[in-house]
Recover the amino acids of this structure.
């Protein structure tokens, strides 16, 4: 397993790698910032896909795409982030079409959950997605937190980020009955 980290995120890459190692899986961390950028990090991963980070070489074995889970997390937003997000979405769509799975944190799909529910594999899965998002939001609101109001951040809005803002504004005008 290769944990690719930006280098400044709150998710601790070391924890993920250690958890994999405890499960008997070889793991290494590649930090984009530590490598000096995306191009260098990509080259490092490409050069050593079978390295276990000090535990010796690991023989590659083929596995079905149905065993792959692509897990994505927002690494931050700015005016340049739309293009990579579109590409990651297209990669996720293609992998799911080929039997893989994709996941994201529920907070990061808020405002677009109705779009994702419309694309769910079954009506039951769509209903489950909407229930989870509504439950998470209700729990946050019970503590006085406005999850939807935090995305995009005020700094991103000042910087010109509009996509998430449009989704949030469109969401506010949507009838309450459409919330699932």
């Amino acid at each position: 397993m290769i944990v690719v980290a930006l280098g400044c995120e709150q998710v601790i890459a070391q924890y993920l790698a250690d958890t994999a190692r405890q499960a008997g899986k070889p793991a290494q961390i590649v930090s984009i910032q530590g490598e000096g950028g995306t191009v260098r990090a990509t080259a490092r991963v490409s050069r050593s896909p079978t390295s276990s980070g000090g535990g010796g070489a690991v023989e590659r074995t083929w596995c079905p795409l149905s065993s792959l889970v692509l897990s994505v997390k927002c690494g931050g937003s700015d005016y340049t982030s739309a293009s990579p997000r579109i590409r990651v979405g297209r990669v996720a769509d293609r992998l799911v079409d080929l039997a893989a799975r994709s996941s994201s944190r529920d907070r990061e799909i808020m405002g677009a959950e109705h779009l994702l529910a419309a694309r769910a594999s079954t009506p039951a899965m769509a209903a489950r997605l909407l229930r989870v998002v509504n439950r998470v939001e209700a729990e946050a609101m019970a503590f006085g937190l406005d999850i939807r109001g935090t995305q995009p951040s005020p700094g991103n809005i000042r910087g010109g980020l509009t996509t998430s803002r449009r989704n949030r504004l469109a969401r506010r005008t949507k009838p309450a009955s459409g919330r699932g």
About this structure: Residues 50-55, 165-180 have pLDDT under 50 and may be disordered. The helical segments are 13-22, 32-35, 38-47, 82-97, 113-118, 123-142, 154-159, 163-173. The beta strands are 2-5, 28-31, 69-72, 101-104.
